[in-house]
Write a structure and sequence with these properties.
Helix content is 78%, strand content 0%. The protein is mainly alpha-helical. α3 (72-90) packs antiparallel against α4 (92-113). It starts with a helix and ends with a helix.
């Protein structure tokens, strides 16, 4: 794996963790739907400016894209909304581990069947072991969260 790609993916994960905590705090102040709206609309405005000055692709090609590919916008809204909602209730780390678990499970299925133009990568024992370790991490984090919550009462 390319070192730059590992670094960039790690940076993306760090950004999601910070974004989750910040959006959770904003959601506590404003509400889940409102925080999602602020997050996505502000991001849209920023991306519009970046696209105008730095875009190199063909934004008009979106009109020729298959309509199912545009469904990703609804998934983005769902993702941010659920992150805002869950972080406030179960914390950043539990929400992040659950999110990563969901991403891994969907990624395993998508890769296995080669859906959405993905390379076909069959499910093997190494991938199953990775899922088991994620489940164990989630279990230990959940237990730690419960213990901390009970101590505070």
């Amino acid at each position: 794996m390319d070192v730059v790609m590992v670094f960039l993916a790690l940076l993306a994960g760090l950004a999601v963790g910070a974004q989750s905590a910040i959006n959770g705090a904003l959601g506590h102040k404003t509400g889940t739907v409102e925080a999602t709206f602020v997050s996505l609309s502000t991001g849209t405005l920023l991306l519009a400016v970046i696209t105008v000055f730095f875009g190199r692709g063909d934004l008009g090609a979106v009109m020729d894209a298959p309509k199912w590919q545009l469904s990703a916008v609804f998934l983005a809204i769902l993702f941010v909304s659920l992150m805002v909602y869950c972080v406030r209730r179960i914390g950043v780390i539990a929400t992040s581990i659950l999110t990563i678990s969901g991403q891994m499970l969907s990624g395993l299925v998508i890769d296995h069947f080669g859906w959405f133009g993905s390379a076909r990568i069959p499910l093997d024992i190494k991938r199953l072991i990775a899922i088991v370790f994620i489940a164990l991490a989630l279990y230990f984090i959940y237990r730690s969260n419960r213990r901390t919550t009970q101590t505070r009462r």
